[in-house]
Structures are given as structure tokens and as C-alpha cells.
Amino acid sequence: MTLDAFFHRDGGRFVPTELTRGPWSADAQHGGPPAALLGTALEATERRDDSMIVRVTFEMLKPVPLAPLTVATRVLNAGRSVQVLGGTISAGSEEILRGEALRIRTTDLSFPEPPLLPAVPGPDQGKPARFFPTGYEVGYHTGMANSFVRGGFLEQGPAIAWLRMRHPLVADEPVTPLARVLIAADSGNGVSSALDYRRFIFINPDLTVYLHRYPEGEWVCLEAATTASNRGLGLAHSVLHDMRGPIGHGLQGLLIGERKR
């Protein structure tokens, strides 16, 4: 399949390309592309132009395979000012990923907005970093451009990393600002790893993103830090930025384990 997008439409299904492949298995996707796919579908569900998605939570029930996927969404609560939307991604008859979004109406109010926190250094002030040695040439790491202002994929500790999609999410379809955030936000644990990738896994079975505005432009920044416990648990937290300043937060619970030797 042509590597011109993360997914291709095939009737009612979405066929992933190798650009969706994640670092933990050659047969499983990175969490970012399917989260962006479901988030885009949730945003389009009974779309309201006077509202925005302010919170999305995903539960990765199983590894997302490199196989055709179906997406289903519905309105869970249709309030006048606040709506709750739910959706799933399935492979065949098996539900793989579940998501829920909170959408709130927007309006113009007559008060000056508080000043934004200072913007982090832009992607032009960082440098590309080598991805984890996954053993395969094509994957999420080639589908995304990166620029690290602080840290790196192979460096442990907090990081400031800019990420940008090199390709559309779905072939021949526009990329929404929400999709740009979600496909990047699932990398918080990767850019700020607290443990040696060669010895440990630190997989996130969930992702929650809160936004107070959508990003402007193609680059999304993760100002990320990971906390790891020797009980096999962890938490990755990312302050999300665009070139103007902060836009929200991302949180990932982590399943930590030792790699088999």
C-alpha cells in the first residue's frame, strides 16, 4: 500500500499503512494514529460549529492491529451547551479502542483573556532525534517529523519535543487541528521516558487530552515528564503547546514491565 497517509478508506473501513506501526510490536499500531482517527470521527458526530472538543479519553482495550478497522460513534448526552460523545474502533468483530469526548459550546464574552504562559522555544530551535531502535524502517517514527528542544527519544528524563505529521491521517482528506493534537499527544511517554527502552516497556493503555483551544499550524509541542514506580505503574504528563503557547494537557497511565531477555 502507498505510504502517503496513515490510513486509507476502503468502503466503510480504514486500512492502516505501515506508518501507523508503533515501537512495541511489528504487528501493532502506535496509539496516536487510531486515537486521532476516532477523535476525528467523534468531532464530526452531529457537528456543531459553535462548540469545541475540550476533553477526549481513550481506552486501548487491546493492541491495535495493522488490520482494517471500523469506526462507530454516537451521542451519549445531547445537552444544549454540553454534549458527551462516545465511539469505538473495532477490528473485525472485536472492539479494540474505546473513546469518549466532551464538547462545550463557545461564545464571545466581554472580558480580556488572561495572558498566556511564555511560549516554549519553537521547532526551529530544536533538532531531530533518533527514534527507538525498533528493528523496522517504516512506522510512526517515519510518519512524524520531530524537533527536540530538550531531551530525546533515547535520553531519559523530561523533554520538550515538537511533532508534526508528514502525511495526512486519511488519504485525500484534510487533517483537523484536533487530529494533529491527538496523534502527537500519545507520544508523551516516549519523548520523556524515565526508563531504559532496552530493558523495560512502558505502554499506555489510556490517553486523556484536555484542550482550551485547538492548535494553530502543523507543529504540536509536548512538554512532557514521566513518573515511574517500581510497582509496575507510571504516569506521563504533557503540557501541550502550539507556537502561540499552551493549548492543553495530556495524561497517560503507564503499564511498566521488564523486557524478556
Description:
With 261 residues, this protein is mostly beta strands. The protein has one domain (7-106, 123-258): Acyl-CoA thioesterase, double hotdog domain (Porin, Beta Barrel). The chain contains 4 helices and 13 strands. The chain has helices at 32-44, 140-143, 177-185, 188-191, and strands at residues 7-10, 13-16, 51-60, 70-78, 82-91, 94-105, 144-150, 159-165, 200-203, 206-211, 220-229, 233-242, 245-258. Strands 3, 4, 5, 6, 7, 8, 9, 10, 11, 12 and 13 form an 11-stranded antiparallel β-sheet that branches. Strands 1-2 form a two-stranded antiparallel sheet. Strand 12 and strand 13 (245-258) form a beta hairpin. The two termini are 34 Å apart. The mean pLDDT is 94.
Q: List how many beta strands DSSP finds.
A: 13
How would a textbook summarize the main sheet? 11 strands, antiparallel
Helix content: 10-25%
Radius of gyration: 18 Å
Would you give the CATH topology?
Porin
Q: In terms of per-residue confidence, which ranges show pLDDT below 50 for 5 or more consecutive residues? A: none
**Mean pLDDT metric:** 94
Question: Secondary structure elements and their pairing?
Answer:
Layout: E1 7-10, E2 13-16, H1 32-44, E3 51-60, E4 70-78, E5 82-91, E6 94-105, H2 140-143, E7 144-150, E8 159-165, H3 177-185, H4 188-191, E9 200-203, E10 206-211, E11 220-229, E12 233-242, E13 245-258
Antiparallel strand pairs: 1-2, 3-6, 3-10, 4-5, 5-6, 7-8, 8-11, 9-13, 10-13, 11-12, 12-13
Helix pairs in contact: 1-3
